[in-house]
Amino acid sequence: MRTLQSSTAKVLFALACCAVSLSTSAQKKVDVLLPVRGFCIAAPRPQQLDPFIKFIGEELAPRHVNTLILRVDFNYQFTSHPELRDSIALSKADVKKIVAIAKKHNIRLIPQINLLGHQSWASQTHKLLEKYPQFDETPHVKMPAKYEWPNADGLYCKSYCPLHPDVHKVVFEIVDEICDVFEANAFHAGMDEVFYLGDDKCPRCSGRDKAELFAGEVKTVRDHLQQKNRQLWIWGDRLIDGKTTGLGMWEASMNNTHRAVDLIPKDVMICDWHYERADKTAVYFAMKGFKVVTCPWRTPSVASAQLSDMLNYRQTATTEMKENFQGMVQTVWSDPASFMEEFYGRKKDALGGENTSGNCFKVLYDGIATLNK
């Protein structure tokens, strides 16, 4: 009887080892084919924290997501600048719970605070310009009681002035704090959809080359992060010529910032987002010498095409360019609670139909799962 039990135990142990070996082999394969497998979403509010941590463990980890970009902005109880905290914000202990689950599943955490642009939304001014109005690039543009687009002021989102002598002291203190608490070796600065830059009425920026202003801010942020061996990630839209490509003012630049692509350091990671079409601009960034990830949102067919393109780029690129094509990052532009309601089918998107971020995520990662076979 003991011999039988011993033999059974040995068989079970061998099977377990085999399963681990197969799992490790599959992991190595997908790591080679697609180094970055990311997910980008707003950081949860404290009341959303436990369900979000469960989501990381039960949904992200099994899909081999290895990069989690969390849009924190002012959703943290900063000690360096408590005046910039949202009224309800994550504590240090809350963040450490996210850090722990990420470490458990070997997920790289990258916090984001929007720098330069996106300092307001609709009729609301965000914390930085609310508390430091002197940093506003366009103080003459007043926030409307009811926001509409288009508008006479060309107001989409406010920007801070990159040449204000005091802005970086404040900004870098909260950037350092958020990177420290997340134990992060990379930081996402946003920097997308910057429409207000080099304004004619700005006493510092007026008349300056907008490409040089944008590139200068990217380099300033990058250089600061480099002091602690942290990598800068940004969205790529401001580096694409919107007129030549026909991509327009949202997914590309119509205010001449695109020439900054030749002025910024090559170690900046570019997050190349296109949500309605699988445009091939990842090739453009790779040929410029940048590492790039492609970012879908809510259209599953586009995400599938983008995944196919990314895999093809890595397979067919020259040795010199192959590693510039780094992978895929699913973006979600809602809070985690709303996303999970849709993802788990508890709430339907009447307008989106099948084109939702939850469906897009599932289709993208179903496609990635086939790489293990």
UniProtKB/TrEMBL annotation:
Active site: E193
Domain Glycoside hydrolase family 20 catalytic: 89-298
Cellular component per GO, a single term: membrane
Reactions this protein catalyses: Hydrolysis of terminal non-reducing N-acetyl-D-hexosamine residues in N-acetyl-beta-D-hexosaminides
Signal peptide per UniProt: 1-26
GO molecular function: beta-N-acetylhexosaminidase activity
GO biological process, one term: carbohydrate metabolic process
Pfam families: Glyco_hydro_20
Repeat is among the record's keywords: no
Alphabetical keyword list: Hydrolase, Signal
EC number: 3.2.1.52
Keyword presence, Hydrolase: yes
Stored SUPFAM superfamilies: (Trans)glycosidases
InterPro entries: Beta_hexosaminidase_sua/sub (IPR025705), GH (IPR017853), Glyco_hydro_20_cat (IPR015883)
Similarity remark: Belongs to the glycosyl hydrolase 20 family.
Name recorded for this polypeptide: beta-N-acetylhexosaminidase
